[in-house]
Amino acid sequence: MPLITWGPALQVGNKTIDEQHQKLIDLVNRLNDAMRAGHSKEVLNDVLTQLVDYTVYHFGTEERLMAEHHYEFSAAHKNEHQKFVQEVGSFKKRFDQGQATISSDIMTFLRDWLARHIMATDKKLANALQKSAAR
Ligand SMILES: [Fe+2]
Ligand SMILES: [Fe+2]
C-alpha cells in the first residue's frame, strides 16, 4: 500500500508543479516500500539519494517561478524549503555514517511535511501564479 496517494487534495493546479509533486510522492512511496521490504542499505541509499536530489531540483523549479512572477511570499516559502533540505540533509549524513536508518518515523515525517507543504504553501503559490498568468 502506498504511503501517500496522489489525488485532488494534493493538486495545486499548476501543471509543472503538480507533475513534479507526483514524482516526489512516487519516490517517497518507493522509499517506504524499500524499507518495508527490508532492502539493503545500498538500495535504500539509492532511493534516498534520488529523493534528496529530486527535492532540491523541485524546490529550484518553484523558486525560479517565484522569482519570475515576483511572488510576494517567496522569502517565507524559500525558508520552508531550506529548513526541510537541512533536516533531510542531516538525516542523510547520519544515514551515510550508519547512525540512522529509514524508519517509519522518518517516513511519517516526510509524508506529513510534504502533504502539509503542498496543500498550504505550494497551493498558495500556484494560486498566485494563476492570477499572475491571467493578468
Ligand atoms: Fe514549495
Ligand atoms: Fe512543491
Supply Rg: 16 Å
Largest sheet: none
Helix content: over 70%
Classification by helices and strands: mainly alpha
DSSP strand (E) fraction?
A: under 5%
* CATH architecture assignment: Up-down Bundle
Shape label: elongated
Number of DSSP strands?
Answer: 0
What is the average of the pLDDT values?
A: 96
Low-pLDDT ranges: none
Our count of helices gives 4
N-C termini distance: 43 Å
Fold blueprint:
Layout: H1 15-36, H2 41-68, H3 74-96, H4 104-134
The structure holds fe (ii) ion (2 copies).
Question: What would your notes on this structure say?
Answer:
With 135 residues, the chain is mainly alpha-helical. It has one domain: Hemerythrin-like (Four Helix Bundle (Hemerythrin (Met), subunit A)). It is 77% helix and 0% strand. The protein has four helices and no strands. Helix 1 (15-36) packs antiparallel against helix 2 and helix 1 (15-36) runs antiparallel to helix 4. The N and C termini lie far apart (43 Å). One fe (ii) ion (FE2) is lined by residues 17, 21, 58, 62, 118, 122. One fe (ii) ion is lined by residues 17, 21, 58, 62, 118, 122.
Question: Which terms summarize this structure?
Answer:
Four Helix Bundle (Hemerythrin (Met), subunit A); single chain; 77% helix; mainly alpha
Brief description of this entry?
The protein is built from four helices and no strands.
